[in-house]
Write a structure and sequence with these properties.
7-stranded mixed beta sheet; binds zinc ion; TIM Barrel; alpha/beta; 2 domains
């Protein structure tokens, strides 16, 4: 007879390679088994009847800014917002914390900050600013999921862009250290030229931001990134792709055998230039939000797999850094605070676009793949994360696909300004569990900390 489980989550439809009525048994923080309804016994029971059970969301791109700029948000606040949104693992970027995560000691400082205050589990990106084998080796040995570099100004002085002439050498050094390279792909020369032209015309309105970074900025940078990856034999991940035309170079690179994946963000899928004009600086980000036809094109690419995954690129700031852009968009901080809305924004958009042709279970499967399974696989966290299978961490989102709700300002947990406040959602997070412990339940975060650092698993250790 099997031993009594710590926890049984009963009655949910489990979204994992399809949709099945199963009870989830949890022992020692891991999924022990998926069993027939009512089977086995447990110390604690959760009644999840009528709900879907999704693998906990793995948000591959957040900036919690801690240490150094914790007054903008920090691990405590950022991770609470994530937990409320059904995210059980975040992968934090090497900036805008101070110091940026560029070597072993700065990695250790970031990890310690997360271990002190994060409610959810976390993995870490390192940063790359030059070909530095020693620093890259330190990051790899500590379990960084990869290194992120910039092809244009990063927005903070302490993390400079990779110099044009040094891109291939830096990527080769990362590949030698076994690290995947994530690139912010906007061409700095084209950004400078278009920005000067738009500013010289006296433009400071919200729409001027997108005009200062036209699609060609991404098309050119993504093409160069793909070519550099091939030359360096590096694994490449394009973060927050926003211009659908830039996918052409990715398709060509894949056909030649280059290992490249692409991410986009909900704000590029659900908002357009009219929203930017209405919302102003809260939707300022780089690359910029473009027009409706571009958003439609990105959605098709997410649907057919040309875009691999969706992440929040949650990048909050002190509210006054957004406010100062009211009369001059160029003066505002660039970044969208969206960690809390990742799952619900994507589920809502998928439901809207399916227009009744797909049932909620199929939509949940699509969303879970893009937001949990695929990022966990790409960044070396699967099958510990991103899967509801025996042996995986018991990271579970209990989700009500039918509930309609509006994000009120007092329920927005980020330290930044969320552009999703006032927005209507379809589908709600009812409960979030990290390693079998409830961290969010019916509107309230129920833990103070307890999140663990998750190192990237070695290739051979994966299932
Ligand atoms: Zn970012």
């Amino acid at each position: 007879m099997s031993p009594r489980a710590d926890l049984a989550i009963r009655g949910a439809i489990v979204i994992q390679d399809g949709a099945f009525a199963r009870d989830i048994l949890v022992t020692g923080g891991r999924i022990a088994a998926l069993v027939e309804s009512g089977a086995a016994s447990a110390e604690e029971e959760i009644d999840a009847s009528g709900l879907l059970a999704l693998p906990g969301i793995v948000d591959a791109h957040v900036h919690f800014n801690d240490p150094g700029r914790a007054d903008w948000e920090g691990w405590a606040r950022g991770s609470r917002a994530a937990a409320a949104g059904g995210t059980t693992t975040v992968i934090d970027m090497p900036l805008n914390s101070v110091p940026p995560v560029l070597d072993g000691p700065s990695f250790d400082a970031k990890r310690a900050a997360g271990e002190r205050a994060s409610v959810v589990d976390f993995a870490l990106w390192g940063g790359i600013v030059r070909a530095d084998p020693v620093a890259l080796g330190e990051l790899a040995e500590r379990g960084a999921v990869g290194v992120k570099g910039f092809m244009c100004e990063s927005g903070v002085p302490e993390l400079p862009a990779l110099p044009d002439g040094g891109l291939v050498a830096a990527m080769r050094a990362a590949a030698d250290a076994g690290l995947l390279v994530a690139l912010h792909a906007e061409d700095s020369a084209l950004v400078a030229e278009a920005t000067a032209r738009v500013r010289a015309a006296g433009r400071r309105d919200a729409a001027a931001w997108a005009e200062s970074r036209p699609p060609l900025v991404e098309v050119r940078a993504v093409a160069r990134a793909c070519t550099a990856a091939r030359e360096a034999a590096a694994r490449l991940h394009i973060v927050h792709l926003a211009a659908v035309e830039a996918l052409g170079a990715v398709g060509a690179a894949r056909r030649e055998g280059t290992d490249v994946t692409v991410e986009t963000c909900p704000h590029y899928l659900v908002f357009d230039e009219a929203d930017v004009a209405r919302a102003g600086p809260s939707l300022k980000c780089a690359p910029p939000i473009r027009d409706r036809a571009n958003g439609d094109g990105l959605w098709r690419a997410v649907s057919d797999g040309r875009i691999d995954l969706v992440a929040s690129d949650h990048s909050p700031c002190a509210p006054e850094l957004k406010a100062r852009g009211a009369g001059d968009v160029f003066a505002a901080w660039g970044g969208v605070a969206g960690a809390q809305s990742l799952l619900c924004a994507l589920f809502t958009e998928a439901t809207r676009r399916a227009a009744g042709t797909l049932d909620a279970r199929k939509i949940a499967g699509f969303v879970a793949w893009r937001l949990a399974t695929k990022p966990a696989k790409r960044f070396g966290l699967w099958p510990r994360k991103g899967a509801l299978v025996p042996g995986a961490d018991a990271d579970v989102v209990l989700f009500d696909p039918a509930r309609e709700w509006t994000l009120d300002a007092e329920d927005s947990l980020t330290g930044g300004i969320s552009p999703y406040v006032g927005r209507r959602f379809r589908g709600a997070v009812v409960r979030t569990l990290v390693r079998g412990r409830t961290v969010f339940r019916e509107g309230s975060v129920t833990r103070e900390a307890g999140g663990r650092f998750i190192p990237r698993m070695e290739e051979g250790a994966r299932g």
